[in-house]
Every structure is written in C-alpha cells, then in structure tokens.
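1st attempt posting a full record on here, be nice pls
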Amino acid sequence: QFQLVESGGGLVQPGGSLRLSCTASGFTVGDYSIGWFRQAPGKEREGVSCVSRTGIVWNYLDPVKGRFTLSRDNAKNTVYLQMNSLKPEDTAVYYCAADSGWAGCRGPYDYWGQGTQVTVSS
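the predicted structure (as tokens):
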C-alpha cells in the first residue's frame, strides 16, 4: 500500500521549465528522505537531489546544480523538482524514491515511483 507517483513530465523546448511532482500514498514524506533520480536511455541511473526528513536538501548532480531545485510540501505529502533552463541532455525518465534510514539520503531506498518522462527537444 506504500506508493510514490511521479507526474509533471512531458515535452519541452530547450530553455524551458518543468515542475515534477512526487506524491506519496500510504506513508508520510516528512518521515522519509525523498530523492530524485534520472535515467537517460543507455545510461546509468543518476541521483539528482534528496531532502532529508529534517528538511536538509542535498544536491548531487553537477550538471543541474543551479537549474534544478527540490522542495517538499508536507501538507500535500508531495516533493517537487523544479527544473529550469532545460537542456536536451536533461532528457531522461525521472524517478522519486523514499529512504527510511536514520542517516537520511544514504540509501538503500525503500520505495520507488515508476517514473515520468522528460524530453527536451526543439
């Protein structure tokens, strides 16, 4: 009954913006670390950023630093990834995942969404 559902992906032109949403069912996002990941075709999955249960945000992916911003809305049980100045190389399936570990944002992640496709193209 524990589930994460991503939404907000789609086709956008280079330089455009998207806001991805990750909504939890069956658990409270404030009780978990929630991370965003992405996987492009033929490439390994990359960690983008993560928010701990205490609200600390960790940014991992150098190419998107300054362009992507993670935020959490506990009232909506949702974690967002605001993506600005999108580039074709940002094209990927974006996933969110929940980590119940006490250390926070360390993995392994307990629950994963099924992903939302982001395509950046003219």
